[in-house]
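Lecture notes, part 5. Sequence design as translation. It can be helpful to think of inverse folding as translation between two languages: the language of shapes and the language of residues. The source text, in structure tokens, appears below.
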């Protein structure tokens, strides 16, 4: 059950009444967004996507419920970051939604930033098995 925040604002309305965990994916690389969306959908998650923080911001009023998990790339367009996307979605949810930050940046600063936000950090290229383990831990854990 996938949806694009830029296009629809919510995922497929035929999603069994919203009973599936909702995962928000924010990344500026369309191929990554589409790949993650397909993968997460095949694992039984509802997915909404955004290609930028601006697109995410525009779509929030249309969401019918907050996400159960956030997956965000660290580097987003216009100098924005995945940390900002996490903070914005947590503010929308009104609670500390679990989050995964994806990045190719292996500097200690990225790890410290993720830890300060209580986010899991996964380095690109992300392998399927560790991603699935992280998603299951954070959505069902």
């Amino acid at each position: 059950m996938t949806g694009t925040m830029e296009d629809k604002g919510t995922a497929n309305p035929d999603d069994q009444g919203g009973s599936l965990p909702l995962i928000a994916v924010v990344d500026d690389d369309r191929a990554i967004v589409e790949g993650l969306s397909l993968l997460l959908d095949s694992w039984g998650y509802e997915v909404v996507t955004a290609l930028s923080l601006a697109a995410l911001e525009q779509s929030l009023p249309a969401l019918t419920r907050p996400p159960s998990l956030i997956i965000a790339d660290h580097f987003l367009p216009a100098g924005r970051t995945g940390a900002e996307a996490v903070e914005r979605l947590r503010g929308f949810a009104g609670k500390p939604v679990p989050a995964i930050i994806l990045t190719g940046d292996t500097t200690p600063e990225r790890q410290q930033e993720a830890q300060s936000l209580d986010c899991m950090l996964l380095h690109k290229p992300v392998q399927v098995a560790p991603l699935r383990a992280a998603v299951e831990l954070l959505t069902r854990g």
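The translated text above is only one of many valid answers, since several sequences can fold into similar shapes. The chain has a mean pLDDT of 89.
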